[in-house]
Amino acid sequence: MGRITEDLIRRNAEHNDCVIFSLEELSLHQQEIERLEHIDKWCRDLKILYLQNNLIGKIENVSKLKKLEYLNLALNNIEKIENLEGCEGLTKLDLTVNFIGELSSVKTLQGNIHLKELFLMGNPCADFDGYRQFVVATLQQLKWLDGKEIERSERIQALQNLPVVEQRIREQEKAYCLKRAKDKEEAQRKLEEEESKGEMGRSHTGSGGHWHADLSATLPSFEESKDYIQAPEIEEGQCKGKEFDDREDDLEFWNKPSLYTPESRLETLRHMEKQRRDQERLSEKKKKVKPPRMLVTEDGRALNVNEPKLDFTLKDDEKRNQIVLDLAVYRYMDTSLIDVDVQPTYVRVMVKGKPFQLILPAEVKPDSSFAKRSQTTGHLVVCMPKVGEVIIGCQRTSKPVKSTPDSSKEQTSKRCQRFLSDSQVTGKTCSGHLSLQASM
């Protein structure tokens, strides 16, 4: 059930800096509100109030809104015009597509002397013979009715025929009230039947649950382990069966013929709420923990992985005897969310916790590797010198390097952890994890 709360009004008062006591315009349409409350206490200065397309069944708690000029209650469950005498400044009232059958209740608006526009189309009373004549003669301050201007000649004729028209209106009202009473009884009977069916279903489910528990308690340990292994499959089958049954019930509900009444609108709302809750429960059951991404096989072989789905290029720079990885990292992403790890046979980059891993075409030296990020494009560039080769560059001098089995093992075993930052500009670190150079 939707209710009018202070939080709801504040969320719809952003145009007034969320201040509600001085609000002049408020829109609470399509909020599934069933009762009109609190507004006359919290928003005394309201001039325009939109409450269309809700489930409000009665006009109430608005009599203190002395400044209210326009009230929109279209598409609700209102059956009678009442409690608007205190709205002294009311000039426009919209009650389109409600369930007003007591047309004589428009007499309560005779005290609203500033009322100029009234909308009653789509109500049962609008189908009464003499409806327009009765309203025009009863509310002489009106200028427009259902969007059509009231001519002076039309009002004179309506006043002349008022006694006869009023008698016809009362007879039609009486017939409508009898019909509505029968509709309410039928709706109450259906509601009781649905509640009894629901209680029977719950009791049946409960007894079935106890039976299963008692039976499982008598099974031997081997059978218990077997059932335990098969439990996910059984549970999945039960979920599918329940989903199918719910779909069948939903089709039956929407295909069932129904009268357009306040009760049927409420029934539709209850059904949609139940459907939404069931869907949420099913989705929670279907949720499974995503297994971690495999980066290295059981036999120690690294895999190529690109979970962040980034574009990249891998170049073999023969001039400087190094391998260069250019990774198109998101341009505006913070550098602290990037972690680089260079190993002799592969390179791994964690981008916001998602791994990018690439097997290298040649063995590299993690100790001499370095990473830098472009300040214009955001790209990450990782330079990895090859093992046993000489690096030639303006910042590095060459020295022959002897590769021995012991040194190779030592390089492979070196691992440490570090994080990147935009403000930090450092060189190479003691092992495969690199810090970032913010140059380029």
UniProtKB/TrEMBL annotation:
State where the protein is found. Cell projection, Cilium; Cytoplasm
Query: Which stretches make up the U2A'/phosphoprotein 32 family A C-terminal domain?
Result: 128-146
Q: Basic and acidic residues bias: where?
A: 187-202, 265-283
Top-level taxon in the UniProt lineage: Eukaryota
| Record InterPro entries | CS_DNAAF11_C (IPR056496), Leu-rich_rpt (IPR001611), LRR_dom_sf (IPR032675), U2A'_phosphoprotein32A_C (IPR003603)
| Assigned keywords, A-Z | Cell projection, Cilium, Coiled coil, Cytoplasm, Leucine-rich repeat, Repeat
What's the main place this protein lives?
Answer: other
- Does the record carry Phosphoprotein as a key word? no
Protein name as annotated:
Leucine-rich repeat-containing protein 6
